[in-house]
Amino acid sequence: MVPKKIGTHNGTFHCDEALACALLKLLPEYSTAEILRTRDPALLETCDVVVDVGAVYDASKFRFDHHQKTFQETMHSLRADFPWEIKLSSAGLIYFHYGEKILADLMKRPAEHRDTQTVYRKIYEEFIIEIDAIDNGVNMCDGDTRYRINTGLSSRVGGLNPKWNEEQTPAAADRQFQLAMKLAETEFLDKVNYYSNAWLPAKELVREAINKRYEVDKSGRIIELPQTGCPWKDHLFDIEEELGIQGELIYVIHTDTKSYRVQCVPLKLGAFDNRHSLPWRGLRDDELCRESGIPGCIFVHASGFIGGNQTRDGALEMARAALKTYSPDNVSEK
Ligand SMILES: *[C@@H]1O[C@H](CO)[C@@H](O)[C@H](O)[C@H]1NC(C)=O
Ligand SMILES: CC(=O)N[C@H]1CO[C@H](CO)[C@@H](O)[C@@H]1O
Q1: What's the confidence (pLDDT) of residue 257?
Q2: Phi-psi region for residue 288, left (φ > 0), alpha (ψ -120 to 50) or beta?
Q3: Structural domain total, the chain
Q4: Could you give the 3-state DSSP secondary structure of residue 186?
Q5: Does ligand 1 come within 6 angstroms of the Cβ of 41?
Q6: Contact 154 CB / ligand 1 (< 6 Å)
Q7: I need a labelling partner for 246 at 20 to 30 A (CA). Which of 20, 49, 80, 175 fits?
Q8: How far is the CA of 81 from the centre of ligand 1 (A)?
Q9: Quick check: CB of 315 below 6 Å from ligand 2?
Q10: Nearest of 83, 160, 164, 68 to residue 122 by alpha carbon
């Protein structure tokens, strides 16, 4: 049987088509496909699928370029119930058309299964959108950033291109492109593994903790997680919304290896600000116990987002004491 061919452009490569090709190769029909890197239309014509070159987006013809002037698609424009409005790159396009199928195979669940759908959305939001935005030159925020991140996947893939003073042959570039695809594939598979096997199962744990919040404290603002290290933040925001109690939870207590922690719920996902930071910032041990009036305190972080006590009740006491200065009308107060 003649192996299938995936076409993409030659010359300098970027993360989006490396990931697009890697994603296609996760599908059974393209698992043994060859990559043909060229801008020659006659050669591209011989390919079973073409990404990031050719100036055509037509899924029915397996053509996935996003460079043509007419192309303005986003996840939202292609499916109205998706909220994301960043212009797609070739990675986003392939993910839109084949992502659910790829995830269904990897997660061994039907594509329509709630878990597959949850992970599909999550991986777009936490991973693919970044590749789309960087490829299309969409800044992360308005104004000047105070530093640059040069270790993201897009930078690392870019760094695999042959350097100006290295071998400049098409063969050398193709070899490097194989490494770029491998890097992108590894990152994608890591994300799938994390979100389906660690992140998703944590949701039930967080839900249970939220349901039992009044058993922890009568304010209903403190939850207790049975385990440390379990990803709770985004689940907490989602479940608050499901239950119609947005903004109500302020502290999370959980065990660390030998002691207990009290941690603030951030103002929003990824924010460094909290709904109500702990007082006694930067204090430790005796001084902290004196100031808080709670025995056995170990520390409060300088930014006030986390503190520790040697007992569970101590950590709970710290959360309760901190709540005394909390006012729901002033949630941006740190
Ligand atoms: C890309 O391929 C075209 C034809 O396939 C060739 O003419 C051109 O020199 C190549 N460019 C680079 C940078 O390799
Ligand atoms: C309030 C409270 O229970 N604090 C505890 C913090 O940890 C120390 C050490 O175990 C306990 O002695 C405190 O009672």
Answers
A1: 75
A2: alpha
A3: 2
A4: helix
A5: no
A6: no
A7: 80
A8: 41
A9: no
A10: 83
State the distance from the centre of ligand 1 to the C-alpha of 5, rounded, in angstroms.
Answer: 18
Return the ligand 2 atom nearest residue 310 CA.
Answer: 7
- pLDDT at residue 333 greater than cutoff 50: no
Take atom 13 of ligand 1 and give the residue whose Cα is closest: 11
Q: Which two tokens stand for residue 85?
A: 């409005």
Select from 107, 111, 93, 82 the least CA-distant residue to 23: 93
Residues 97, 23 share a domain? yes
The reply to whether ligand 2 has any atom less than 6 angstroms from the CB of 99 is no
Nearest CA to ligand 2 atom 1: 314
Helix (H) or strand (E) holding 77: helix 75-78
In this structure, the answer to whether residues 194 and 217 fall within a common structural domain is no
Rounded Cα–Cα distance for residues 224 and 229 (Å) = 13
Ligand nearest to the CA of 9: 1
- Tell me the pLDDT tens digit for each residue of 72-115: 999 999 999 999 999 999 999 999 999 999 999 999 999 999 99
The answer to whether residue 187 scores a pLDDT higher than 80 is yes
Ligand nearest to the CA of 13: 1
Which ligand gives the minimal distance to the CA of 310?
Answer: 2
pTM for the model: 0.82
Give the pLDDT of residue 195. Answer: 96
What pLDDT digit, counting tens, does each position of 241-273 carry? 999 999 999 999 998 777 888 899 999 888 889
The reply to whether 51 falls in a domain is: yes
Is there a single domain that holds both residue 271 and residue 313? yes
Domain with 171, as residue range(s), is: 5-199
Q: Reduce the DSSP state of residue 284 to 3 states and report it.
A: strand
